[in-house]
Specification:
The chain is mainly alpha-helical. The protein has eleven helices and two strands, in the order αββαααααααααα. It has two domains: 161 residues, no CATH class; 76 residues, no CATH class.
Amino acid sequence: MYLTQAQATLRPWFKETNRGLELTDLDTKPPLKAYETQALKLRGEEVGWQIKVGDLAANLHRDYRQDYQQVFEMCGLAGYHRSLTTIESWASACRSVPHGSRNGLSISYLQVVAPVTDPLDQRDLLKDALEQKMNVASFRAHVAAFRNIIETPEMPPWEERDGKLFEVEKEAYTLEIALQEERAARQRAEQQLENTKSALVTLRSRLEALVKMKPTDLMVNIGQVVEVLKEALEALSRLSLS
């Protein structure tokens, strides 16, 4: 189907819903400009934008063979600290889970159910998650049981975690940093103690040598005596400072 430039610009090519980003016309490929315009709209969204970016990336790759770097730049995702691998994962999940199977749950749930091949099974599993108010970890176990797969539990994404859990992990991280600093300080103190012990052993041997000298020898070696006494004073000074 041939479209004029005006039609291409004014036509609403995409429809945003809680299920993601849907095409308004499945028979006509949107122009590249329409993708760019839609990407700009997604930049300011706060809810459900991950699924919409995934749909945009999947459709753009299908229609124009654009790599995910293009979507990454168009949507300005560098500011969200997202990687190209994340965009590819979102696009893969959106390709695998059709809009008819979705029910408004986040991209994390789509990624979990994506390996299930039957769209009807996907729909039923996502319905279970919604009705039973499962978190991502519980849903992962639910889908694994459905697929008869035993999977090791993983931490859910940061945006899916309970606020209290985040605070606990943050406090644990702070305590770990403090513990590392304390260990480093203790190692420095132990090293300083060893250096002091070594210096005292040397100084003691020199003082003992002076004590054993005859008075006449002390007068002859007065310069050496003064040097040893200076070392003793310096050692005492270091001990008092530490």
